[in-house]
Amino acid sequence: VMSVYIIDWLDNKEKVLGKIKAEIDSAVDRYRHPETVSEVEEKKKQELVFETEEVSSFSESFDDFKSFKIKALGSSENFNEASTARITKCINDILAAEAPMNKKTLAKKTFSCWGISRPGANMKALFDKAFENADAKVTTAGENEYVWFASQTPEEYDKCRTVYKNDDKRDIDDVAPEEIAVGIKEIMSRQVAMSRDDLLREVAHLFGFTRITPTLETSVALGIKAAKQHGWVGFSEDGRVSYTGN
Questions:
Q1: Signed CA dihedral, 86, 88, 90, 96: sign only
Q2: Cα 222 from Cα 209, distance rounded (Å)
Q3: Strand 136-141 to strand 101-102: parallel, antiparallel, or no bridges (unpaired)?
C-alpha cells in the first residue's frame, strides 16, 4: 500500500507518478525474486518513513513559524508581585513571536522563563494578573482559549504557519482555528470537493502529523467551521466538503 497525498500530487504530479512507478517495479521485482523480499521490505519501510517526514514544496509555500526562545528572567522566588511588569513584558514578547497561540502554551512558556515547571495557585493567579495588562485579546474555540496580539484581527487573519525549523513544530491544538482555516482554504482551492476524512488527512499532513488523533480531529473540525464562516467552503448533499471560491 502506498499513500498519495493530494497536495503532493497537485504540487508535482510527475514526481508522484515516478514514485508510484518505482513502487510497482519494486512489487514486481519482489514477486520475481522472493529471496530478496526481506531486503526490499526493509528498504520500503525506510522510504515510507522518510516520506511521512518530508515537507512537500506545497507546504513550503506557507509562512514560517518562529518560536519564542525561552530565556532566563529569574528564579521561581522572583516570580512575585514585584515582577508583575516584567511578567507582562515577557507575555508580550512571546505573543509578538507566536500569536495567535493557545493560552495554556503562553502560560507554560512564561513560567519557563522563571524556571517554573509546576506553578502553584498563587503563581497562576499572578500570571492572570500580568496577562490583564498585556497587549492581547482572547478568542475561545472548543475547550481552548487562543491569545492574539492586540494588533491582530482574528476575522482577517490570513497566515498558515506550517514551515518549522528544528523542533519548533506545534501541537495541533496550539494552532488557532482561524489559522487552520487558511490552510483548509489553500487545500480546497485546488480541489472541487473532497470527503471530510480526506480533508482531515490532508490538513494533518500539511501541519506535519502522520497520526489522526481525537485532538487533531477536533482541531480540524473547528478549522472547517471557521473556513465555512468565512465562506471559503461549504457542504454538498452527500456530506463532501466543497470549495466555494469566495
A1: negative
A2: 17
A3: unpaired
All three cell numbers of 241, joined, read 466538503
Alpha helices in 12-164 (DSSP H): 13-32, 37-53, 84-98, 103-112, 121-132
Cα–Cα separations (whole angstroms), residue 208 to 30, 36, 140 = 31, 33, 24
Q: What is the pLDDT of residues 123-160, one digit of tens each?
A: 999 999 999 999 999 999 999 999 999 999 999 999 99
- Residues 3-55 have pLDDT tens digits of 666 656 655 677 778 778 777 877 777 777 765 545 545 554 554 444 444 44
> Where are the extended beta strands (E) located within 132-215?
136-141, 144-149, 161-163, 193-194
* Cβ neighbours of 8 (radius 10 Å): 21
Place of cell 499572578: 126
Kindly report the pTM of this predicted structure: 0.75
Are 154 and 178 spatial neighbours (Cβ–Cβ below 8 Å)? yes
